[in-house]
Design a protein that fits this description.
- Keywords: Oxidoreductase.
- InterPro entries: Ald_DH/histidinol_DH, Ald_DH_C, Ald_DH_N, Aldehyde_DH_dom.
- The chain is of the alpha/beta class and 451 residues long.
- The protein has two domains: 3-204 and 422-433, Aldehyde Dehydrogenase, Chain A, domain 1; 210-394, 3-Layer(aba) Sandwich (Aldehyde Dehydrogenase, Chain A, domain 2), CATH 3.40.309.10.
- 41% of the residues lie in helices and 18% in strands.
- The protein has 16 helices and 17 strands.
- Helix 6 links the parallel strand 4 (128-132) and strand 5.
- Helix 2 (23-39) runs antiparallel to helix 5 (113-124), helix 3 (41-52) packs antiparallel against helix 6 and helix 11 packs across helix 12.
């Protein structure tokens, strides 16, 4: 089917959906859509592994389950149509309206949960959506979308409201972006840039390069387990996964021992360049190591690591552009840095972020609220994750208040239009009815300018 025809079908379906579905019925639809991915988590994880040849099956199962239930939990009971609010003081009335047709661009790294969340956000806001999967993940993405379409059909959802490009190409994706009403692009930076150049309102993501500060006087075993859990999850392909940890120089022995106890292999100085050269070529990450296991990376580097190794740790020789290991590594490898004082820890994190990953996410493990606030104040990130694995909580958690999503805005730091987790509210147009309120005193010029 041609893109033009798909968009025409979507527009017709969206009008019907908008006219006939109230809030209760919409919420029934999105609950079933989310539950479908939850119930088919294992099947879809296996399809994803077989097609993309990256990541960890068990982690993909967990991701499919946790993201689907998290998205539904966040959206349950939220008003997304009609009158949203009436300000008691000004009488300002806000009325929510759909945007129209959404182009959902989805990546190879999260080819099931990303289409799922975008579909649910669109359905929640009475929009139509067409998913454009990554060509190397078209089968598992299409399977997920089709399962959702089949599951919501009994609710008399109009045909064409949810669609997927089954044979995606760059040309088709670009055509879709130009023909739709809004673009939500999750994927590599060239695709995000293309979305912003499409001439349509767009929401994109920035590159990740999550820096994690280990404060002093914490339980390093607890911190090490959380950091390694985040870095090793799905073999490190999550954009919000930990990339580096920054520790006080006086705690080095204790920190490294804790990391070893929880599955880290500290790469020797002798083998350091072997690992770096196995990861990067001409400053860019090798595609063949993305989402691969520690054993695969070690084999490519020509080093031996124990079978129970969860991550490789490489001690950096510089910060920012002075050392390639400071860049984003989409595999279970981490950089390690030492600092003299907390200000230096922040400087290290800042320098690495300015080089790559600005605006995305950072982490801190600390019992010192002043230092936590200082890091949040000084680091140019949209999310600072505290005492938790970044990979599995930056994209939203029932416990941390961040909306569950797979599209993480990075603000102007990352050349994005939002600096928060993308969710259903970003797919709404709002009409504001603004009468003059007699209850509000209009101050004189003297009153306005007085101190």
């Amino acid at each position: 089917m041609e893109i033009k025809e798909m968009v025409e079908r979507a527009r017709k379906a969206q009008v019907i959906y908008d006219e006939r579905f109230d809030q209760e019925r919409v919420d029934q639809v999105i609950k079933v859509a989310a539950r479908t991915i939850f119930d088919h988590a294992e099947e879809l994880a296996r399809l994803t592994i077989d097609e993309t040849q990256m990541g960890v099956y068990e982690d993909k199962v967990a991701k499919n389950r946790n993201k689907s239930k998290g998205v539904w939990y966040n959206l349950k009971g939220k008003k997304s149509m009609g009158i949203l609010s009436i300000d008691e003081r000004t009488n300002l009335i806000e009325i929510a309206k759909p945007i129209g047709v959404v182009a959902g661009i989805t990546p190879m790294t999260n080819p099931v949960v990303t289409p799922m969340s975008k579909i649910i956000f669109a359905l929640k806001t009475k929009n139509a959506i067409i998913i454009a999967p990554h060509p190397k993940a078209k089968q598992c993405s299409s399977a997920a979308v089709k399962l959702i379409i089949e599951a919501i059909a009994p609710f008399e959802v109009p045909e064409g409201l949810v669609q997927v490009i089954e044979e995606p190409t760059i040309e088709k994706t670009c055509e879709l972006m130009e023909a739709c009403d809004v673009v939500v692009a999750t994927g590599g930076m060239p695709m995000v840039k293309s979305a912003y150049s499409s001439g349509k309102p767009s929401f994109g993501v920035g590159a990740g390069n999550v820096q994690v500060i280990l404060d002093r006087f914490i339980d390093f075993d607890v911190a090490a387990e959380k950091v390694i859990t985040g870095r090793s999850f799905d073999n490190g392909i999550i954009c919000s996964g930990e990339q580096s940890f920054i520790y006080h120089k006086d705690d080095k022995q204790e920190v490294m021992d804790a990391f070893r106890r929880h599955g880290a292999y500290i790469v020797s100085e002798e083998d350091r360049d072997k690992v770096v050269n196995a990861l990067f070529e001409d400053g860019h990450i090798y595609r063949d190591i993305v989402g691969q296991s520690v054993q695969t990376i070690a084999s490519k580097a020509g080093i031996f690591v124990p079978g129970n190794t969860r991550v490789l740790v490489v001690e950096a020789h510089g910060i920012g552009r002075d050392d390639l290991i400071c860049k984003e590594k989409m595999c279970p490898v981490m950089a390690a840095f030492s600092y003299d004082n907390f200000d230096e820890a922040i400087k290290i994190a800042k320098t690495n972020l300015f080089m790559e990953g600005n605006g995305h996410t950072a982490g801190i493990h600390s019992n010192n609220q002043a230092n936590i606030i200082k890091a949040g104040t000084e680091l140019s990130v949209s999310r600072l994750i505290v005492n938790a694995p970044c990979a599995t909580t930056a994209g939203g958690s029932i416990q941390n208040g961040l909306p569950v999503t797979n599209t993480l805005g990075c603000g102007s730091w990352g050349n994005n239009s939002i600096s928060e987790n993308f969710t259903y509210k970003h797919l709404l147009n709002i009409t504001r009815i603004a009468p003059l309120s007699a209850r509000i005193h209009v101050p004189s010029d003297a009153e306005i300018w007085e101190l």
